[in-house]
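Structural prep section.
Before we set up the soaks we want a predicted structure of the protein with NAP in place, mainly to decide which crystallisation condition to try first. Input record follows.
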Amino acid sequence: MRILITGANGQLGTELRRCLETGRAQIGPLPDALQGAQLDCADRSALDITDEAAVRTWFAQRGPYDVVFNCSAYTNVDGCETHAAEAFAVNATGAGILAAATEHDGGKCFYISTDYVFPGDDERPRVEDDEPAPLSAYGRSKLEGELATLAACDRSFVVRTAWLYGQAGGNFVKTMLRLARQNGKIAVVADQFGNPTNANDLAYELLLLSLTDDYGIYNCTGNGVCSWYDFACAIVDIAGILCEKEPLTSAEYKERFPQSCDRPHYSSLDNARLRVTIGDDMRPWREALASFMEAHPEL
Ligand SMILES: NC(=O)c1ccc[n+]([C@@H]2O[C@H](COP(=O)([O-])OP(=O)(O)OC[C@H]3O[C@@H](n4cnc5c(N)ncnc54)[C@H](OP(=O)(O)O)[C@@H]3O)[C@@H](O)[C@H]2O)c1
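Run finished without errors. Recording the tokens verbatim:
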């Protein structure tokens, strides 16, 4: 099996690579069909997915691939409001370019999307068929990327995840640890709810899905719902950091950070389709978080 990961040095790209290189995830070993897979990893400097000619050349010289994981994205949610053109170029146009190249060679294409395609105005975990209506430029760019991928490649998986953390790059877990240690205090929004997701667990589920022909849209997040404040408290508690914890409303947060964009109040996803296809192996979010922090004591 031949696999390409783009955006390979990001959080998810790094965990996919780790799983494929070691033959296992934190959840468990990979199936035999994935052991010894031939892997090409491209970061942005090696392959910019917004450059159609470069993508074509890459596939012509190194393809064909059985599976392409598009882990490239513009993920700065607030930054998308002020850099919308850049965000749409990567999250939407680039996604379509990569999906078209994958389609041309007969491969399967994975596009990773977000809970932020939903408005979050309804306190009910969203299933895959629910109507998206993003509040932010990030959410709109990701929804456009979903559609571009599905339109360009018949063998597409669009997998929506949320509140992702992994070993590479910056994320909420690392930020909370830094602030708690530096300031002895964290102040975190307590009225936005979602599903923290361990990138290594997500990578495992994506790899299992890649062995199927059950294309289409999936949700894949850690199990259980919490607020950002609950998530932050769990992070500092597991790390054993004693600090002051201040819950904020979204309105209070906006006063402190006026440049921040609107986020959904309740954007929990239900892994409904996973349960009826490969099975939902995603762990309860606290367990997955503890396992992540145990695996990375350097944090
Ligand atoms: N992080 C979350 O909480 C979250 C939540 C829901 C969904 N998601 C989705 O999950 C996926 C993985 O997220 P992540 O957290 O792993 O993202 P990440 O850590 O920000 O990694 C994204 C990678 O994409 C690369 N990239 C940016 N522009 C590119 C381009 N034009 N061509 C090729 N590569 C490019 C980045 O490279 P540079 O560093 O050089 O820019 C970076 O290595 C994304 O699709 C994201 O939208 C993430």
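Observations: The chain has a mean pLDDT of 97.
Flagged for discussion at group meeting.
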